[in-house]
Amino acid sequence: MNQKNSFKQLRFLIAMLFIIIPSVVWSQSTVKGKVTDSNGDPLIGATITVKNSPEGTVSDVDGNYVLYSRKSLTSKDVLVFAYLGYQNQEVSYSGNILNLVMKENAVALNDVVVTALGIKREEKGLGYATQTVDGNQITGAMPTNWSAGLSGKVAGLSVVSPGGPIGSTRISLRGDVSLNQNGNNALIVVDGVPMSSPMTNPGTAYGAGSASELSIDYGNGFADINPDDIESVQILKGASATALYGTRAANGVVMVTTKSGSKSQKGIGVTYNTSLSVDDVMRWPDYQYEFGQGLPSNVGKAGTEYAGKLYYSYGAAPDGNSGTSGTSSAYGAKFNPEVSFYQYDPVTQGRATEATPWIAYKDNRKDLFQTGYTLTNSIAINGKSDRGNIRASVTHTKNEWILPNTGFQRVVASINAQQQVSRMLKLNLKASYTNRKLDNVPALGYNSNSISYFLIFQNPNVNLDWLRPMWRTGEENLKQLQPYSSFIGNPFVILYESENPSQKHSTVSSVSAELKLSRKFDLMIRSGIQLSADQREQHRPISDVVYANGFFKKQNVFDYELNSDALLTYHDSFSNGLHVNASVGGNMMNQYYDMLSASVNGLITPGVYKLANGTSNPYVQTIINKRSLNSLYFTANFSYQNKLFVDITGRNDWSSTLPKQNRSFFYPSVSSSVLVNELTKLPEQISMLKIRASWAQVGNDTEPYKTAAYYSTSEFSGSLQMPSTLYNASFKPEISTNYETGIDFRMFKNRLGLDFTFYYNQTKNQILDAPMDATTGYTRATINSGNVRNRGYEVQLNGTPVSIRDFKWNTSFTWSKNENKILELAEGSDENQLIGSVGSVSIIGKVGGTTGDLWGYKLVRNGNGEVIIGANGLPVRADEIEYVASAYPAWKAGFFNELTYKQLTFSFLIDMQKGGNIYSHSHHKMTEQGKLAHTLNGRLEGTEYYMDGNDPRIAAAKLTPLDGVYMIAPGVVQNNDGSFSPNEKVVTIEAYNKEYYRMANVEANTFDASYIKLREVRLEYSFPKSLLNQTPFQNAKIALYGRNLLCLTDFPMFDPEAAALNGSSILPGVETGSLPSTRSVGINIGVTF
């Protein structure tokens, strides 16, 4: 055995001699040296070639290199040194020893960007639009959800949220491409690991009057990424940029790169950051506090003090007048402290025995809220050596939200390590662990158990303190205190008893190996996992509005996504100036989602939230989804003399969610860019002019289990229920085809830059569940339906207007416009495709319309646009729903400025939107009940509709003469001959508002969502080095910041960016019981040791 091994070793040595000796014998010149950066750190993997020759080598882990040339080099020969992110340098041969310090690229468009699959490219070679947001820009105003920090900074990007402390967001790029509500989200990728972002929301946005669960935002998959760990965010918009990520990248990719120790100095360093912000309500609706609870019919009886006048009484009055407190409307008597009524007595919890002054409590909504705060502490340790670096950090965030007993705590621990094991092998490890605890998250939507419902129904004559006892005296924990209506939950019971706690553990981790097989071949292998386990609960006490006997639900949500990639890359340069970089690779993706819930309706012992405490057997529900996707792909990048660039990609996916015969689908892309300034001489003021264009296709699959009949568990143990959606065994994958062209322009040594992009995208074979006739036994069916087009324009303008010794002004402006249109629907499908609905408003797709069109009933008008009034003096009701408006804006823009004077930096961001519409259910209900200031029209003297009680038209109508109670509805009545004449019929203002702004009248409750927001402000002082030299600190800074400090808009409710959380979807264009958005101001301190 030993002889055999010796013989094998001898053969190996002889073979190596045959390889090595000729190269040494044939080489006529040898050049040695070391390649470093400006800090003296070695550059590993720098390429050194002889110009116009195939000969070359690469630097090792210490930056050292040895170049053997077969010819005798002379001073006429040139060595070319190249390294990504640094300027290529050409040096004439001057001897056998050549050390070189490489300079980083100074030209803005030569910046290195991270593209699909984590491939680093120089931006000048890209044939498509991309944009980078630095991590400091994300944390400038310290949002608790990092994605909120993208608003206003990226052209073509939209971020909407249903609100609440977690603030889950829906990120979309360049408009909605799908008729499926959940098919328009951008893919989030963290350090090369794609993030699945399922939302498990148990309720609906509209559930009042039914035994339905509330919408609760427990967060989606990427909500807990730690903002302090983000190095940069790269936005890949078009299909050419995203095609290599496959099916889920059809709507763009948001690539998050976390911080590492690569940019730190050698040795050990420590960075500590702390920030504290205080939060309050950004904006309130314009409530009215002129009139109290009541109706126009609440007129005092003859012979009483209030005869012929509006009055109020909590329950029947001692003088014989009836009780008026049974209504939620505020069309009652005008407030007057000199007038007294029998009101609620908080001591007896009944009608007071003495009349008290009739006054308004103007803070009876605002006092329910508190000044919230967010405290974040982060410490990071960096280490760096010649061969590797590491960064480890721990961040703790404590949030007390603006509603009492709501908020969260979050601890994030992360590590990022890189090690150059040898000249050929580099290892990378990135991992983060998050532990997030929610003691309580407020429910969202229009439901009897939500705080937003209480804000709508609260009357101006009710003192909030009257409700603080929570329980009726002697019936603690059994009967909540609801003095005015059993349909309205006590807000303090909702906040302190109806809790929605959660405990979530999650991790995002990846490990990769980069192997330099030779000077021309590299191999990258990577595997990453995103995993989370969330334990959620719902507590509903006895006497709950929806669950009278109490309710408890426990959910365990477990999900993971595992991705494994291999990428083989070939790169070479040729003597004619051609550079080739080509890669082939594959990906295996597996997703798993497991939701187990158990609930009991009815509690034995009040306040004990355990399944064993239920009066019924637990109702158990299980949802398990599995999905796999295998892919092969290639990409080839060609560069000719650094002037002309061409990229070609192709990817083939095999998806488990598609029918077997359509499971495989291929999509290619091609893009090109030309540096005009390199091809021809331009005026010296022009630093760079680049023209780019691209064409690409990207496919998309769908959710699992649509290809066959799958049964689910029912409420009865051991039984199954039929599926409500008809499966489809032959539907095809969605295909998006994208065209893009643009220019990148730089002037005055890059102090002025302009990027312009035009894009055109069509998505066909939309996969969606279309409504069916219920008589078939199914309510929906999976079909391929329609073709949706998005086209638009994006502008990004960057400039440095002033740059002198002590002062610098940087500014940027982004503007984008997207035009969405449905080109066709499937033959034979309903011409009106239902995309989503909440309450009375529907989002319906129709050929020629958009995927964000709001539909509902409108006012009936004549040919002149005048509202037609019926015989009852109120607007005539329409027979059919119609198109009302589009939720999509005409354009969006952002304006950022940063001014630096010596050590002081001031920056601000203005974010704006023109157009777009939003339906407000809250506005409908509060107008119907007379709670908003605009309902004072006609009730206050001097307003347009006001009628004095002595107006003869009131007497003619035989109505009780009252001031400010009646009006004549503006509009016309139709005569028998078909002509129209002005309406003259007297009606109450309450009746008019109730009819005109009724829930079904989507037109009257839909508003322009245009806004201008002062999104971010930051004032930062960095301590000078001369001062820090006397301390242990290397860097130190202190900053004051603000977020959402100002909002200018005509939208009448809290926030024009509101969206509805409806099941697992975040639905833009619909507000249905939203909570306020927050305005924050804070302080941030950071030091580095």
From TrEMBL:
Keywords of this entry: Cell outer membrane, Ion transport, Iron, Iron transport, Membrane, Receptor, Signal, Transmembrane, Transport
GO molecular function: siderophore uptake transmembrane transporter activity
Organism: bioreactor metagenome
Domain TonB-dependent receptor plug: 128-253
Localisation: Cell outer membrane
A Pfam family annotated for this UniProt entry: CarbopepD_reg_2
Lineage: unclassified sequences, metagenomes, ecological metagenomes
UniProt cross-references to PANTHER family, sorted A to Z: FERRICHROME IRON RECEPTOR-RELATED, FERRICHROME OUTER MEMBRANE TRANSPORTER_PHAGE RECEPTOR
UniProt membrane topology term: Multi-pass membrane protein
Keyword Transmembrane helix attributed: no
GO cellular component: cell outer membrane
Keyword Iron included in the entry's annotation: yes
InterPro entries: Beta-barrel_TonB_sf, CarboxyPept-like_regulatory, Plug_dom, Plug_dom_sf, TonB-dep_OMP_SusC/RagA, TonB-dep_OMP_SusC/RagA_CS, TonB-dep_rcpt-like
Protein name from the UniProt record: TonB-dependent receptor SusC
